[in-house]
Write a structure and sequence with these properties.
The protein has 93 residues and is α/β, with parallel strands linked by helices. It is 23% helix and 39% strand. It contains 2 helices and 7 strands, in the order βαββββαββ.
Length: 93
């Protein structure tokens, strides 16, 4: 299962509040046709999404193909000089 680190938790909280999706909203991650990932803020998970909850209650919705690829990974985020978030995934240590 995907782990969500503290920096990603904080970023997702900020993004969901800004988007006004409420406490049941979260970050949705889906696979794209080119085998990349599409990240979006969603008010609720898709019908087949796996829901991952951080220790602080932040939600990440994983489309089934994304869930398969991201199992045993850690979701992290970096902030650039302009304050934009850049999400990344890394193997669990």
């Amino acid at each position: 299962m995907l782990d969500i680190d503290d920096t990603a938790t904080s970023a997702i909280k900020e993004l969901t509040v800004a988007a006004g999706v409420g406490p049941r909203g979260g970050l949705r991650i889906a696979r794209t046709p080119d085998l990349g990932f599409d990240l979006s803020i969603a008010a609720r998970p898709g019908g087949d999404d796996e829901v991952v909850t951080s220790a602080d209650g932040v939600l990440v919705f994983l489309e089934p193909r994304a869930a398969e690829v991201l199992s045993e990974k850690v979701l992290d985020v970096r902030t650039d000089d302009d304050g934009r978030f850049h999400f990344g995934v890394y193997p669990k240590l």
